[in-house]
Design goal:
CATH class of the largest domain: Alpha Beta
Number of domains: 2
Shape: globular
Oligomer: single chain
Radius of gyration: 21 Å
CATH topology of the largest domain: Dna Topoisomerase Vi A Subunit, Chain: A, domain 2
Largest sheet: 4 strands, parallel
Strand content: 5-15%
CATH architecture of the largest domain: 3-Layer(aba) Sandwich
Structural class: alpha/beta
């Protein structure tokens, strides 16, 4: 038995289909949208529609943009000899927030995951190889997540890049700043030791 009108059920189902949103959160969001003044609700739906229509992938790095080439790739202040490979556009934001990296990016839009039937052809590996074949690129930084799929993707890509005579590096992982050694797991401690630097 349904307690809500069909259109409200569809709205709840739409919110529930989003990642990380359960049924109760979806209901809360749907009720919030219904409580908005008409103008705000229309602006919300218009924002979704216009983003879906206008946002595309950069022709160079595959990051989201509303132009053919994103602002990072078109900037003449970026170091074009270094490409940082990330699995998701959100990772670009994280790295940019740190304000330490000044090179270019390559967004894979996923990782190799045989369990989910995602292979190298389903993510942006071919496009990365085309970019690596250019004369400018000297280093590729693998910045995929330190989980099984991220590690496998990084290893696979690094093997493909070997013939290009390009330096391939991996982000160092280890103990987070402000935490205690006693709470670190074995894999994190091992990574911290491997990625140690001279003081």
């Amino acid at each position: 038995m349904t307690y809500f009108p069909a259109s409200l059920e569809r709205l709840i189902d739409s919110f529930a289909s989003l990642p990380g949103i359960g049924r109760k959160s979806a209901q809360r969001l749907a009720f919030h949208v219904l409580s908005l003044p008409d103008q705000e609700a229309l602006a919300f739906s218009d924002a979704i529609a216009s983003a879906k229509k206008e946002v595309r992938r950069c022709k160079v790095c595959r990051n989201y943009t509303d132009h053919e080439i994103c602002s990072i790739c078109s900037s003449d202040r970026r170091d074009r000899s270094v490409i940082c490979v990330v699995s998701d556009p959100r990772d670009v934001l994280s790295l940019e927030r740190a304000r330490e990296y000044n090179g270019l990016y390559h967004v894979l839009h996923g990782v190799i995951s045989p369990m989910n039937h995602i292979g190298p052809d389903d993510i942006g590996v071919k496009e990365l190889l085309v970019r690596a074949a250019g004369d400018e690129v000297q280093e590729v930084i693998m910045a995929t997540n330190p989980d099984t799929e991220g590690e496998a993707t990084a290893l696979y890509i690094s093997r493909l890049l070997k013939p290009f005579n390009i330096k391939v590096t991996r982000l160092a992982y280890g103990i987070p700043v402000g935490s205690n050694l006693e709470f670190a797991d074995d894999a994190t401690l091992m990574r911290a030791l491997e990625g140690r630097t001279e003081l």
